Amino acid sequence: EAQVTQNPRYLITVTGKKLTVTCSQNMNHEYMSWYRQDPGLGLRQIYYSMNVEVTDKGDVPEGYKVSRKEKRNFPLILESPSPNQTSLYFCASRQGARAFFGQGTRLTVV
Amino acid sequence: QKEVEQDPGPLSVPEGAIVSLNCTYSNSAFQYFMWYRQYSRKGPELLMYTYSSGNKEDGRFTAQVDKSSKYISLFIRDSQPSDSATYLCATSYDKVIFGPGTSLSVIP
Predict the structure, then answer these.
(1) Which of B101, B97, B70 is nearest to B88 (CA)?
(2) Tens of pLDDT, residues B64-105
(3) Segment A90-103 mean pLDDT
(4) CB distance from A69 to chain B under 8 Å?
(5) Measured between alpha carbons, how far is B12 from B32 in angstroms, rounded to an integer?
(6) Which of A4, A40, A103 comes nearest B42 by C-beta?
(7) Nearest residue to A6 via CA among A19, A23, A18
(8) What mean pLDDT, rounded, does chain B reach?
(9) Res B21 pLDDT > 90
(10) A53 and chain B: CB distance < 8 Å anywhere?
């Protein structure tokens, strides 16, 4: 089954404690991206990657890092999380203009 | 001005009603137009995808694009309670831009 898998689904952490959200896709897509979704603001792109070792900033990259060492994996790293990064996060892979989303990670930073 | 605008609702309709969801976009370079459906606590899933102006039908769903007025619509016929979700329009040239979503409730 074609899918994008994110882990964990839910995470509560404290300010400043580094965390990583993993993302994996099994569709061999070159393009992957991370979004955050906040009420009234919709989906905003954090980072994207057009292929292995190629990453670039999206619309809201501050406070986030990514890496793309393998085609299938695209982890999101928060080196020093802050409360304003409390949000619902989605990983997506894309073929052409069609995006396929993971189930989401609800992150709370206290 | 946001690149893609959408009335957030919420929109509440009785079962069986025809639903009309709408978006406007600002950039005439957008070439692809999509509707995603997002159930509560789930990721968005692609519902409809179209490249050109005109209508595209898939079962009870019809997507309509008017490039001249930069207007995108989704019509749902014979709406069902299972259609209750948030609907996001999206457009694309080299990246995908999403609208904020419209929350729809179909009441039995």
Answers:
(1) B101
(2) 999 999 999 999 999 999 999 999 999 987 778 899 999 999
(3) 91
(4) no
(5) 28
(6) A103
(7) A23
(8) 92
(9) yes
(10) no
Distance from CA of B108 to the nearest CA of A (A): 26
- Taking residue B44's Cβ as centre, other Cβ atoms within 10 Å add up to 27
Q: What is the pLDDT of residues A66-83, one digit of tens each?
A: 999 999 999 999 999 999
The DSSP H or E segment spanning A23 is: strand A19-25
Q: How far apart are CA A82 and CA A35, in angstroms?
A: 17
DSSP A29-83: -SEEEEEEEETTTEEEEEEEEEETTEEEE-S--TT-EE--SSSSB--EEESS--G
Structure-token match 């997507």, residue found: B63
Residues B91 and B34 sit within 8 Å (Cβ to Cβ): yes
Cβ distance A98 to B46 less than 8 Å, yes or no, reads yes
Does the pLDDT value for residue B2 go beyond 80?
no
Residue with tokens 């965390």: A19
pLDDT over 70 at A3, yes or no = yes
